[in-house]
Design brief:
- The chain has 170 residues and is α+β, with helices and mostly antiparallel strands.
- The chain has a single domain, classed as 3-Layer(aba) Sandwich (Aminopeptidase).
- Helices cover 36% and strands 29% of the residues.
- It has 7 helices and 7 strands.
- Strands 1-2-3-4-5-7-6 form a 7-stranded mixed beta sheet, with helices on both faces.
- A hairpin with a 6-residue loop joins strand 6 and strand 7.
- The radius of gyration is 16 Å and the shape is globular.
- 34% of the residues are buried.
- Bound molecules: coenzyme A.
- Coenzyme A binds next to strand 4, helix 5 and helix 6.
Length: 170
Amino acid sequence: MFESARLDDDHTLTGFDCGKESLNRWLVEHARRADDAGVAHVYVWTRRGEANVCAYFAICPTEVVRSDDGVPGSMAGGYSRIPGYLIARLAIDASLRGRGYGEQLLLDALGKAVAASSIGGGRLIIVDALDDEAQAFYEHYHFVPVRHRERRLVMKVSTAAEALGAPRHD
Ligand SMILES: CC(C)(COP(=O)(O)OP(=O)(O)OC[C@H]1O[C@@H](n2cnc3c(N)ncnc32)[C@H](O)[C@@H]1OP(=O)(O)O)[C@@H](O)C(=O)NCCC(=O)NCCS
């Protein structure tokens, strides 16, 4: 029903409404610039043959400092600085909510992080939940909250790879 693709000039961004104004605005005002500048890659979902964006996420490389964030030991694997990928934003149009597409979108994003790590390394997938509701969504998928940074959650790349049936790289 949907196509997932890297954001390009032909996609229509206006009209997207996930119910969270900051995420709607970021897509329209910042997504293209962030992608063009290479600070993140933005992926969007459209209905086949249509240009209107109905879901999106952004992903970028990052590094967490174990002691600053309070990353659990098993996640850090004995390292004080841990490279990984930040799913910087993830949202689906409110009209599509509650039908399992959010899960598919998250799997799409995890797949990109796993693929990136298979080339460039990276141990953790990190999310910064916008609010309690978003945090509960990520916890539902077994992301683990760090101790010292509110609403930051992590998952090992190897855990995501296993869930996706992708080869392990740790
Ligand atoms: C978060 C979001 C992507 C979820 O999409 P969705 O279409 O509502 O989710 P789905 O229908 O795919 O739900 C999949 C599963 O997650 C669960 N789930 C969904 N939202 C949840 C929440 N806030 N807390 C706990 N579980 C949640 C569902 O119950 C379902 O579980 P099940 O498969 O065991 O029945 C969507 O609500 C959204 O775009 N929200 C606004 C943006 C946002 O907050 N993004 C978060 C990142 S900052």
